[in-house]
Amino acid sequence: MPNVKNWQLGRDVAYRYDESRPKKQWAIVFDLNKCIACQTCTLACKTTWTSGKGQEYMFWNNVETKPWGGYPLGWDVRILEQLGRQDWAKNGDYLGQTLTEAAPPKEWALHWEPKDEDWMCPNIGEDDCGGGTVDGGAHLQTLPHDKWFFYLPRTCAHCTYPACLAACPRKAIYKREEDGIVLIDQERCKGYGECVRACPYKKSMYNPYTRTSEKCVGCYPAVEQGVQPQCVVNCIGKIRVMGFISPPWRARKDNPVDYLVHDKGLALPYYPQLGLEPNIYYVPPIHADPRYLEQMFGPRVHEAVARYRELPKDPEAAGLLCLIGSTERIIHRFEVKDGKATGYDEDGHELVTVPVNEPVIERPAWDARIGAIRNNTP
Amino acid sequence: MQRLRAILIAATLAWLAACATSSTTLVEQDPVAMTEVPVAKVEADLSAADPWAAYWNASRPAKFVLIAQQVVPPRPDRVTTDGIQVQAIHDGTRVAFRLRWPDAEPSEAGRLGEYSDAVALQFPVVNEQLPPVTMGAAGMPVHIFHWRAQYQRDAERGKPEITDLYPNASIDMYSMEFKDAAGGTQAEREQFNPGVALGNPQSFRKSGVDEILAEGFATSAVQAGHGAVARGEWRDGWWTVVIARPLVIDGASTLRAGAATSVAWAVWQGGEREVGSRKSVAINWVPLKVQ
After folding, report:
1. The dihedral sign for the CA sequence A329, A334, A338, A339
2. Helix axes of A301-309 and A290-297: crossing angle, nearest 10 degrees
3. For residue A195, what is the nearest residue in chain B, using CA coordinates?
4. Chain A residues with CB-CB distance to B74 below 8 A
5. Do both B124 and B89 map to the same domain?
6. A113 touches chain B (CB under 8 A)
7. Which of A169, A192, A206 shows the shortest C-beta gap to B72?
8. How far does the CA of residue B165 sit from the closest CA of chain A (Å)?
9. Which residue of chain A comes nearest to B274, CA vs CA?
10. d(CA A58, CA A73)
């Protein structure tokens, strides 16, 4: 297998095909500190894309509770268990094996295949805490608290080195040159399910009615129009932003995704050790067990948590986080100036300007103009 | 007691011998190792693929070794079907192959993570220049007839709906498909079933056997059929599948009496999660002798 450059691991990795980076790479950044698992993203995706026959069980976007939730059941622990213990170097580079490197000789990647019952409990483990049993009186008395959980919204990561694409015997899966979105050609797919077996994130799903495999399409028709995907624009918590990520050697500080991932180191790919260079990035939850976070996001997670805590002193980063969710269009460039954050489209046109800090206006309780008492009841 | 058993055995053997000479009953013959497949001419109508017709008595089963597909990953861990028995006959316009292999239990797929038992016959498109047995090569196409238990289920009982596969599935409604009347046009409703909307042959009811042209791995393309028929039955740990096709198919493979041609095959064990390139295959092309 050829060697390809994986910047998330700081080294080359083995992959079936040569390195071929798209002109732009679709990416989503999620702030996990803000997600409340309302599942609006899940339903926005469901009603847009998977209301057809054979798609009943499909959630191309799902939100699960970590550490106990998982859709399909145990998708993460089952592949981690197969991969076995692997290690990171002190400088954050990966010393272990990736899925393609650990592949048995007759396979393209280490994998497992979910059974139908594994897909049947999409919300299993919801709100279940990690950190041992909750005994009486285990309420919040001290911080950090030893009981924790967080919500993990997930879409296809439109990986730079997709395992699904490598595993497809029919070459029916392709990565678009213009935006890096990974698609299964519904005309060519023969439903062998190799992509379902190979994707460690389990974001390829077999449709038993059309007998083809299907997956998140990155809302490419919207993206082609400069609009962010449905799961992003419908996020009521404004926890996510879709944009285009550059590899670090082409990163631009004024690109929102580059800024969060490369410049500030606030957002990290999940399970980068699997070696696929996934392109969904997470601002880690600052209250969860750091050991668990390190397993999921790698050793750089501790710095990211520390930086998140410093955000109140960082008007630029805080300004960008205010921009997130303020426009449904894709922000290619942003700037924060004079207490305002502005997002621009690909052609440099202004999309939206928001205040970094909302002005506080105090009004007297008595409104003399209309002769009535004001209250805050909507 | 021993005497009674001897009489019973003798009587059974006599009955079997009588059957063998009868033209109305099929008798399974012991297969023999061969290096080619003789195609006997029979006076029979082969337009219905019948695995149990007496005319199969005219053809001695030839047995061939299969190996696990070796060329492209993903490959099977081990060979799951190590041999196949082949009989072949023709009626002047059609040629029929009767294929038998052991399988502990039948698998017809349908639900998630289930795969179908299947068998395929492969012929060169140009007899004079044999393509690689591994599904041909660019400019050297092969012509494939692919039977799946799943496709036969379609032919016999229709393409399953989700509630056939999962009887307890709870579905409120599908877009534009309401309880009392369907809304929109068929094309509008099909938009919600991508494979169907794009005309992927995999997404439609199958006739039992697919006709395919290929020029190497990953290139197989389902063709409009030329009237091939197939029928299989699983009995007592064995699949017996008959695939019957016209001798001459313009633009694809052709079999003629006296003319040299070849055949190859592949078997998939659905219960062992074999599909696509995970299969047992012929070691090489086998010459066909059409009488």
Report:
1. positive
2. 120
3. B74
4. 106-108, 167, 169, 194
5. yes
6. yes
7. A169
8. 9
9. A192
10. 13
Model-wide pTM > 0.90? yes
Same domain, B190 and B73: no
Domain A3-129+147-308 fold: Alpha-Beta Plaits (3.30.70)
* Chain mean position to CA A49: 18
Residues B21 and B62 in one domain: no
Q: pLDDT tens for residues A26-82?
A: 999 999 999 999 999 999 999 999 999 999 999 999 999 999 999 999 999 999 999
Range of the domain at B190: 160-200
Q: Are A232 and A29 in contact (CB under 8 A)?
A: no
Distance, in Å, from the CA atom of B217 to the CA atom of A198, rounded to the nearest integer, reads 19
| DSSP secondary structure, B90-153, as one string | E-SSEEEEEEEEE-SS--B--STT--B-EEEEEEESSTTSPPPTTT-BTTB-EEEEEEEHHHHH
Give the chain B residue whose CA is nearest to the CA of A167.
Answer: B74
Which tens digit of pLDDT belongs to each residue from A71-126?
999 999 999 999 999 999 988 899 999 999 999 999 999 999 999 999 999 999 99
Same domain, B131 and B239: yes
Helix count (H) and strand count (E) of chain A?
Answer: 10, 17
DSSP letter string, B213-243: EESSTT--EE----S-EEEEEEETTEEEEEE
Looking at residue B91, which CATH number applies to its domain? Answer: 2.60.40.1190
- Pairing between β-strand B83-90 and β-strand B37-41 as defined by DSSP bridges: parallel
Q: Same domain, yes or no, for B133 and B81?
A: yes
**What's the confidence (pLDDT) of residue B71?**
93
pLDDT per residue as tens digits for the range A233-265: 999 999 999 999 999 999 999 999 999 999 999
Cβ neighbours, 10 Å, residue B92: 11
Question: Is the Cβ–Cβ distance between A138 and A147 less than 8 Å?
Answer: yes
**Distance between A173 CA and the closest CA of chain B, angstroms:** 12
Pairwise CA distance, residues B114 & B272, whole Å: 9
By Cβ distance, the residue of B111, B193, B273 closest to A116 is: B111
Residue length of chain A: 378
Structural domains in chain B (count):
3
The residue extents of the domains of chain A are 3-129+147-308, 326-378
B3 and B128 part of one domain? no
Based on the fold, state whether residues B96 and B50 are members of the same structural domain.
Answer: yes
Residues B226 and B151 in one domain: yes
Q: How many whole angstroms separate alpha carbon A49 and alpha carbon A66?
A: 26
- Mapped onto helix, strand or coil, the DSSP state of residue B155 is helix
| CB proximity A59 to B under 8 Å | no
A75: nearest Cα among A363, A316, A296, A299: A296
Count of A-B CB contacts under 8 Å? 106
